[in-house]
Amino acid sequence: MNPDDKNLVSGAIAAAVGAGVAVSFAVAFGQSPWVAMGITAFSAGVALLVDRTGLM
Questions:
Q1: Do residues 39 and 15 touch, judged by C-beta distance below 8 A?
Q2: What pLDDT band is residue 2 in, cutting at 50, 70 and 90?
Q3: For 51, phi and psi rounded to 5 degrees?
Q4: CA separation, residue 15 to residues 1, 8, 12, 29 (Å)
Q5: Is the pTM of this model over 0.90?
Q6: Which has the closest alpha carbon to 16: 52, 49, 48, 53?
Q7: Helix crossing, 33-53 with 3-28: angle to 10°?
Q8: 10 Å Cβ neighbour count for 36?
Q9: What is the pLDDT of residue 56?
Q10: CB 23 within 8 A of CB 36
Q11: How large is the C-alpha radius of gyration of the chain?
Q12: In angstroms, rounded to a whole number, what is the distance separating the alpha carbons of residues 31 and 46?
């Protein structure tokens, strides 16, 4: 595994955890867990895309 792959994995984990924390509040207030998982996956993907392309 090269360093770029390791950085990608750690970035994906960090993005998913960050999104998951925010979405857990929405589930606590009655949102569907399936919608919450979709939101988490989408936001983690966008965070990785932004990170890999250097937009931020």
A1: no
A2: low
A3: -65, -45
A4: 20, 10, 5, 22
A5: no
A6: 48
A7: 150
A8: 19
A9: 66
A10: yes
A11: 13
A12: 21
> Which residue in the block uniquely carries the two structure tokens 């989408």?
42
Three-class SS state of 39: helix
CA separation for the pair 19, 5 (Å, rounded):
21
* Residue 39: CB atoms within 10 Å: 17
Written as one letter, the residue type at 4 is D
Question: Which among 3, 8, 44 is positioned nearest to 23, based on CA atoms?
Answer: 44
Summarised one tens digit per residue, pLDDT across range 8-53 is: 777 777 777 877 787 788 888 888 888 888 887 888 788 788 877 8
SS3 30: coil
